[in-house]
Amino acid sequence: MGSESSTIFDKINFPNIFEKIGDARTVGLQLPDGLKYYVKEISGEFEKRGLETIISGKASYGACDLDTELLKHVDVLVHFGHSRFVDIPNVIYVPYTVNYEVNPEKIKKHIPERKIAIVGTLTYAWKFKEVKKILENAGFQVELKSGRGVEFEGQVLGCNYSCLRESKSDAVLFIGDGMFHAIGAGIYSGKKTYAYQPHSDEVIEVETEDFIKKRYILISKAKMSESFGILVSSKPGQFRLNLAKRLKREANRRGFKVEIIVADEITPEIVENFRFDCYVNTACPRIAYDDTRRFSRPIITPQEFEIAMGLRDEYVFDFI
Fold first, then answer.
1. Which CATH superfamily is domain 209-308 in?
2. How far is CA 80 from CA 16, 274, 295, in A?
3. Is there a contact between 118 and 173 (Cβ–Cβ < 8 Å)?
4. Which of 233, 209, 241, 239 is nearest to 315 (CA)?
């Protein structure tokens, strides 16, 4: 086994998985794209124990993206890369984390506020209790709170920033990679937000204005639309049919033609053959935020649809 595989295996606690599996004999394995490369080695560990494995070929973008169809045909489904978000029997979550260090002096140099809340994705949030102590020793007052339905304090998802609800901090420090979650934290909290990337040791002040401006352009297009397709995903944790029905009633009252479209995976190909002027996404919020350019028609969030209909004034991030 190569050194890269060994590194991956160091991050997977197989004894803990086998303990949770118990007497199960047939095991489904669901992995995010980054771990599918190692599926032969991972599956091999189960087969050494005399277990039969079946690999899920479905995409796995998050903890709510469970292969429930495969689950019907196995004793247990082992879902790699994410922590528990939805409670479904016979599903074992195997989080994927990385070790890292923070540079408190670098953070202190770039963040003038001293009363901060720290947030981040699962990959980094597992270490936040230790990070909190380090930053407090450097002179910060650190707020670290639990959110709804997540495993670690300070953990955020692309659709869940509840650990920042009623935050008393003066600023938010997002620790992790990329800017999507950092922008979400800034919009949700309404506070000055910074992003710290441990592996590059960079601190960036998060700008939300450009993001919101682009969203308002889509809202303007929605205001000029006459027909809407409301998209609903049947995936656990994303299924918001009641929200879709409420939005449809509100739109019908205003004379718009609206239909609800249900699918497992919401993709441009799914909607391509429909002829709606605009789509409202009630599935994973990142579909509307990240994949806008992939759709030939505008795709907006439920809250943006409410703004377009005159039901809401203030811009808010979509939240499941």
1. Diphthamide synthesis DPH1/DPH2 domain 3 (3.40.50.11860)
2. 13, 35, 29
3. yes
4. 209
Residues (pLDDT < 50) of the chain are 1-3
pLDDT tens, position by position, 33-84:
888 889 999 999 999 999 999 999 988 888 788 899 999 999 999 999 888 8
- Which CATH fold topology does 3-94 show? Rossmann fold (3.40.50)
Print the SS3 string covering the chain.
CCHHHHHHHHCCCHHHHHHHHCCCCEEEEECCHHHHCCHHHHHHHHHCCCCEEEECCCCCCCCCCCCHHHHCCCCEEEEECCCCCCCCCCEEEECCCCCCCCCHHHHHHHCCCCEEEEEECHHHHCCHHHHHHHHHHCCCEEECCCCCCCCCCCECECCECHHHCCCCCCEEEEECCCCHHHHHHHHHHCCEEEEEECCCCEEEECCCHHHHHHHHHHHHHHHCCCEEEEEEECCCCCCCHHHHHHHHHHHHHCCCEEEEEEECCCCHHHHCCCCCCEEEECCCHHHHHHCHHHCCCCEECHHHHHHHCCCCCCCCCCCC
In the chain, the amino acid numbered 309 is M
Cα 64 to Cα 9, 81, 91, 222: the distances in Å are 24, 12, 12, 28
Cα dist from 65 to 80, 81, 284, 285, whole Å = 11, 11, 10, 13
pLDDT score recorded for residue 6: 52
Q: What is the CATH number of domain 104-205?
A: 3.40.50.11850
pLDDT of residue 7: 62
Q: Give the per-residue pLDDT at 4.
A: 53
